[in-house]
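Budget justification aside, the reviewers requested a transparent look at the raw inputs and outputs of the sequence design task funded under Objective 1. We therefore reproduce one unedited record. The lines immediately below are the structure tokens for a 93-residue chain.
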């Protein structure tokens, strides 16, 4: 995993149109008890219900690939990380 860090707006179009620009990196993590807990959250929160629209074979293949890729602790817990950059500023007059 890599991070670009906070974006800087020191020149260019953004600095001409906005002032007092601030950025902040938001980092979150979530730990699931096990893969089934993770999978349930994927099915329930799937954008547009994509996971629910898959055939049984496609769903099984996705589960297999995710299970192989997600790092699990010795107890089976899976922790995932995500980040985003928040930007705020004031429009110049």
């Amino acid at each position: 995993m890599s991070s670009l860090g906070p974006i800087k707006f020191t020149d260019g179009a953004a600095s001409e149109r906005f002032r007092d620009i601030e950025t902040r990196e938001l980092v979150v993590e979530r730990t699931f008890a096990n893969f089934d807990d993770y999978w349930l959250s994927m099915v329930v929160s799937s954008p547009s219900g994509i996971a629910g629209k898959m055939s049984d074979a496609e769903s099984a293949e996705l589960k297999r690939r995710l299970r192989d890729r997600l790092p699990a602790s010795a107890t089976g817990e899976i922790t995932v990380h995500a980040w985003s950059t928040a930007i705020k500023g004031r429009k110049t007059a």
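The beta strands are 18-32, 78-91. The chain has a mean pLDDT of 82. Computational costs for records of this kind are itemized in the attached budget.
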